[in-house]
Specification:
- The chain is of the alpha+beta class and 682 residues long.
- It folds into two domains: 346 residues, Glycosyltransferase; 243 residues, Beta-galactosidase, Chain A, domain 5.
- It contains 19 helices and 25 strands.
- It has an eight-stranded antiparallel beta sheet with strand order 11-12-13-14-25-18-17-16, with no helix packed on it.
- Strand 11 and strand 12 form a beta hairpin.
- Helix 6 runs parallel beside helix 8 and helix 15 packs parallel to helix 17.
């Protein structure tokens, strides 16, 4: 037997082990030598802590003679009913965890069990536990989510609104059981400093709402809680996410530590927590968010999540005279401006990039996060245009601003403080084409010519260069299909972050950028805008990307998008510069709310009386198909929430093209009330 023949010297590695080794190699390729050294030092630190050589050994006495100023307020304008209903369900033992509704976690909850798979994670030292191993811990997102303890906030809200002791007793039962089931440093719930920080953030809100009776009537329970607070804060401070991992995780960790230092200033150590966390927040708010307000992760959900944390810290700091810089505040306002610009008249925002739906201090469950943030921004920055955008105040603003929030909101003049809509975000790479904004006849197109993501791994970016979304009259027609999966279901993870899952051109069935793992990109396409013009009659955007220049026969993709406002017509021209033959796919993902019918040369989309007509490129040898919920190949899906997908129409135009080519697509949007189906479906 030839010794060079594969598989003859040793058995092949198991698939999971091969996958793990491949991921580790790819992750290493994305690190600098400095980061490699840092990771080695962290491994030494973890092993030393696991042996008790370093880390938190004793928790000092908490001196509780000083009470900070609260930044959460039980406003008389809040209707208790939804909070009481939600708290009663939790008290009965039911929780919603992502797509799992009314999950019985046990009484008391089994904190180390994944409620989706039933796998019980081992109680090993957390920082040496491989939480990516689904055989070991299950789906770690499902395990972690209830351990963030956002449901304790709901129980505390019900207690604050009603004064009923049963809600306090459930909080006490859950926390005492958690302290026993998850001793310091042990198990999956001590594997991530971000998860520990999110618990601190939620605990700080619950502590304030439960009030001084914790210390006066339940001193022993308070002592147990404070002991864990100290351990959490020290853990977060010792395990900040750095180097290529210093993305939203670092902001979340700093936010949790900052809130803990303000809420529990009962140890001399809290001053160091406060100073460290505040310095990180000041630095990272500017580093991770471009001056134009776009979060550099290139993910709209993370834009909102980071905003939530930055705003909460800002308000907590103001309440306790810990002032942030004007640059910090102005960056928050710029981030809100971007959200307002991409939000259509129906309150929809594109789902560019990743979304994990994890809950942090959800003071108003069920409230659309973008609308809620803009309502908060209206009060925070006296922005009448934000008020006009959202229409009404939500409960989250009432919890944050207290009594008088409704009166302050009502007093904002939407016309006097209204600013022109910003349409160009060159640092973030997004451009908004549109007309008749905030009216029933609005057209809003958001074009993407931004970078893939943040830092070397671009963890939460998608291969979506030159994609776009389109809404009309506040109804979504062409959408970004979302995220769906994270640590598990690798095939779906690859699809939803790949080029085929976006409204752009795909060449030879390949992604524009090369995936190296669930949160890794090995080769990243560069993109940019070469033309932006906006007038009363026309908006024009042209962009480019170089993702397919890596092919043996390089392909350069340029896209022109023009909106003729009077004709209500969007013209898209895709120019492909190449020499040899390539398989070309032009993809349009439709909202799941659309009816889609084929007509001569294209398709008609209809939703709530609004009609959009699409005429596809007419080239020899081309064909087009409509997919809905297809598994082989995967086409025709939209994911509106983590781990949930539903069928939706996807239009795929295909052709084999040789040499330089031009693809012309026209999209005509009829005004409401003028829709007709004059063309017979074919």
């Amino acid at each position: 037997m030839d010794a060079l023949e594969p598989r003859n010297l040793a058995p092949d590695l198991p698939p999971r082990l091969k996958q793990k080794l491949r991921w580790q190699w790819n992750r290493l390729r994305c690190m600098t030598p400095l980061e490699v050294g840092h990771r080695v030092a962290r491994l030494v630190q973890a092993r030393a802590e696991s042996r008790g050589l370093i880390g938190v050994r004793e928790v000092p006495t908490a001196y509780v003679d000083f009470a900070p100023q609260p930044w959460i307020h039980c406003s008389p304008g809040i209707d208790p009913a939804p909070y009481v209903a939600a708290a009663n369900r939790i008290a009965e033992g039911w929780l919603h965890v992502f797509v799992l509704r009314d999950v019985d976690l046990g009484s008391p909850p089994r904190w180390n069990r994944d409620p989706k798979t039933g796998i019980e994670a081992p109680l090993r030292f957390g920082k040496l536990l491989d939480y990516r191993d689904a055989d070991l811990v299950g789906d770690i997102k499902y395990l972690w989510e209830p351990n963030r303890h956002a449901h304790l906030v709901t129980l505390a809200q019900a207690f604050a609104l009603t004064g009923e002791e049963k809600y306090f007793r459930v909080v006490q039962e859950h926390l005492d059981s958690w302290f026993i089931a998850c001793p310091y440093g042990m198990g999956a719930n001590w594997a991530s400093s971000l998860e520990a920080a999110m618990r601190l953030a939620n605990w700080s809100v619950a502590w304030q709402l439960l009030g001084v009776q914790i210390l006066e009537k339940h001193a022993e329970f308070a002592a147990r809680w404070l002991r864990s607070v100290y351990q959490h804060a020290e853990f977060v401070r010792g395990w900040f996410s750095l180097h290529s991992s210093a993305n939203n995780h670092l902001i979340g960790e700093a936010a949790g530590l900052f809130l803990a230092a303000l809420c529990w200033p009962h140890w001399p150590r809290a001053r160091a927590w406060l100073a460290t966390a505040k310095a990180i927040l000041e630095r990272e708010a500017l580093a991770q968010n471009a001056p134009d307000g776009v979060n550099r992760e290139q993910a709209v959900w993370y834009q909102q999540s980071v905003l939530e944390m930055l705003v909460l810290c800002l308000l907590a700091g103001k309440a306790n005279k810990q002032w942030f810089s004007p640059d910090y505040e102005s960056r928050i306002e710029a981030m809100m401006d971007f959200l307002a610009s991409i939000m259509d008249a129906g309150g929809n925002v594109p789902m560019f990039g990743d979304a994990d739906d994890g809950v942090v201090a959800s003071l108003a469950p069920g409230a659309p996060p973008a609308r809620s943030l803009l309502a908060t921004g209206a009060l925070l920055f006296h922005r009448g245009d934000f008020k006009l955008k959202v229409g009404a105040l939500d409960d989250k603003a009432r919890w944050l601003f207290g009594a008088g929030a409704d009166e302050r909101f009502a007093a904002l003049d939407a016309e006097k403080t209204r600013l022109p809509l910003r349409q160009a975000y060159p640092e973030g790479g997004y451009y908004v084409l549109g007309c008749e904004f905030e009216t029933p006849n609005e057209i809003r197109v958001v074009a993407d010519a931004g970078p893939l993501g943040y830092r070397s791994i671009a963890a939460h970016g998608h291969a979506d260069a030159l994609s776009f979304t389109l809404s009309a009259g506040g109804r979504e027609f062409f959408v970004d299909p979302g995220t769906y999966a994270y640590h598990t279901q690798e095939r779906w993870r690859q699809y939803f972050r790949g080029t085929g899952a976006h409204n752009t051109v795909r060449i030879d069935g390949l992604d524009q950028s090369v995936q190296g793992g669930n949160f890794l990109w090995l080769r990243k396409a560069r993109a940019g805008c070469s033309l932006w013009l906006s007038s009363a009659h026309k908006d024009s955007f042209e962009g480019w990307h170089d993702g397919y220049l890596r092919l043996e026969d390089p392909v350069k993709h340029r896209r022109l998008i023009e909106l003729d406002k009077l004709a209500r017509r969007v013209r898209i021209e895709d120019t492909l510069e190449m020499e040899d033959a390539h398989e070309v796919e032009l993809v349009f993902h439709c909202s799941e709310g659309c009816r889609v019918d084929p007509v001569g040369g294209g398709y008609v989309l209809e939703q709530d009386g609004i009609v959009v007509r699409v005429t596809l490129p007419d080239l020899a040898g081309s064909a087009h198909r409509l997919f809905r919920g297809s598994l082989a190949p995967i086409w025709g899906w939209v994911s509106r929430a983590f781990d949930r997908r539903e069928p939706a129409a996807t239009i795929v135009w295909q052709a084999t093209l040789t040499g330089n080519s031009l693809l012309r697509t026209e999209i005509h949007i009829e005004k409401q009330g003028q829709a007709t189906f004059s063309e017979a479906p074919v």
